[in-house]
Design a protein that fits this description.
Length: 361
């Protein structure tokens, strides 16, 4: 058969057939199949390792190598000397644009370093798709963050738990990098410890919401205020309990911002000490009645006077008992001045010693 006859049988220009025969141009799968049919041979006879790798599905093969190496497209292309756009185009198989032979050699070298059998990869890329590959392929950073927050710990503590440094963990969580295979088992174990189903997490990263996430996602300010009121604290006093300022607490309650995890743990502890469950607050928000506010709106002067009389004390002695001056007691009883929350809590405590309900005093 002449080149002209083969060209007529295949529709491939004579010049291109000559380039194929002289190895001036790679004979890829599509053209090889057409020529093989015309020559009545198997197309595999016309392919070498490079052109077999570049058969349809080459994008998946390249992506498998990259993902199993724990690299983003940017990191993969930078390490091998490609442009990011080329890497993305290859993985998506856009317009059948394939890596050159030189680029393939670099990709193959990385594949071997990552433990791939290139022949198996060419024949069946799914051979290398395991649970690790599934975990890191999509929303990896978000899934790792979900697991960490379910443990209720900051990045430094979680990093120590899975055996990496905290900067590396932060890069994973913002998807600047992906964990290597050796870190997958500790991450998987950490998920098991808090009852996270990784199969479900891979399908829907938002399926598992930790108590902290639930706390800050909806009505965060109202929940913080409810816990503060249950503690009988003003803003500044509650801030001191949490290790922050009263201004910070005020900003949280106004939903200007939300507390960091380290403050959430203190908020949770304060809630638990008052018999409140964060999980219950997240599921069914029930605000605690603000007894102090009700006290201030009542005839509190008569209440203070009634408590004092229950103790059969003069104003000056009652003031010493509470830790305030005679004039302060006089001002409270005449409602010229409202007791602050701390003194309200003291009055409530003193009333309880006599078995007296503050509102029945």
């Amino acid at each position: 058969m002449t080149r002209e006859q083969l060209s007529a049988a295949t529709g491939i220009p004579v010049g291109k057939i000559q380039d194929y025969e002289c190895n001036n141009m790679a004979l890829h799968y599509e053209s090889a199949s057409i020529i093989a049919d015309a020559l009545n041979i198997k197309s595999a006879l016309l392919l070498d390792e490079y052109t077999e790798f570049c058969k349809p599905g080459y994008g998946k093969r390249i992506r498998t190598i990259r993902i199993q190496s724990g690299l983003t497209q940017e990191q993969f292309s930078e390490r091998l000397g490609f442009t990011r756009s080329n890497e993305s185009t290859w993985e998506d198989e856009l317009n059948n644009r394939r890596p050159s032979r030189e680029s393939y050699r670099k990709i193959k070298r990385m594949a071997i370093e990552a433990g791939f059998d290139v022949r198996k990869l060419i024949d069946d890329p799914d051979t290398y798709t395991d649970e690790y590959a599934v975990f890191i392929e999509h929303d990896c950073g978000k899934k790792i963050r979900q697991i960490r927050l379910a443990h209720g710990v900051v990045t430094k503590v979680f990093a120590e738990k899975i055996g990496c440094d905290w900067q590396t963990l932060e890069h994973w969580e913002i998807d600047r990098a992906k964990p290597l295979r050796k870190y997958y088992e500790p991450i998987k174990q950490a998920a098991r410890e808090v009852g996270i189903d990784l199969d479900m997490l891979n399908v829907e990263p938002d399926y598992f919401v930790s108590d902290y996430q639930g706390f800050i996602q909806a009505d965060c300010g109202r929940k913080i205020k409810s816990i503060r009121i249950a503690c009988g604290c003003g803003l500044s006093q509650f801030g001191r309990i949490l290790g922050c300022t009263g201004e910070a607490v005020a900003r949280w309650e106004k939903n200007i911002c939300v507390p960091e995890l380290k403050y959430y743990k203190q908020i949770e502890q304060a809630a638990n000490e008052r018999g409140l469950s964060i999980r219950s607050l997240n599921e069914t928000l029930v605000l605690i009645k603000d007894e102090y506010k009700e006290f201030c709106e009542s005839e509190f002067g008569e209440v203070v006077k009634a408590i004092r009389r229950n103790y059969h004390m003069k104003q000056i002695d009652f003031g010493r008992m509470i830790g305030v001056s005679l004039s302060t007691i006089e001002n409270w009883e005449t409602r010229r001045v409202i007791p602050d929350r701390e003194h309200f809590a003291k009055l409530k405590e003193i009333a309880a010693r006599k078995g007296v309900n503050l509102y029945d005093a």
